[in-house]
What does this fold into?
Amino acid sequence: MRIWDRHIENCIPLTTLLPEEGASVADIGSGAGLPGIVIALARPKLRVTLVEPLQRRVEFLHEVIDSLRLTNIDIIRAKSESIKGAHTYVVARAVAPLPRLMDTTWHLVKPGGSLLAIKGASVEHEIAGLTLPRGATLQLKEINLDDLPPARVVAISKAG
It folds into this structure.
């Protein structure tokens, strides 16, 4: 149950910020597939790309995707700063402080898209140290769903 309580429950609220279809999502530093696999399950009409640099984690992700028979997921073995492409949403959980996360992922956010970072208690400190790119806007979203702990997601939107 610890995996559910500490990890999966933490990802579910993020899915409420995503549309049902018509968008692409990149999960940066996917690790064990969180939040990317949760997103792919909750939003099966979205295209989800898991970005993970470590081979053993990539192999694990392939096993999970195969066992769940998910067809809306791709995996890229790389660091985010070395890949190209543009996504409607770039998501991250427990990857890096906001300034570093912005430096390594902002190029992957489409104009009009957003970086969505699941954050904890220290988020105000991270926001205070952040300089937004021209035209970008930031919102701290507090998401409360029945029976789940409150979630905090920083949404940084790129001008469209």
Q: What stands out?
A: The chain has a mean pLDDT of 93. Residues 2-157 form a domain with the Rossmann fold fold (CATH 3.40.50.150).
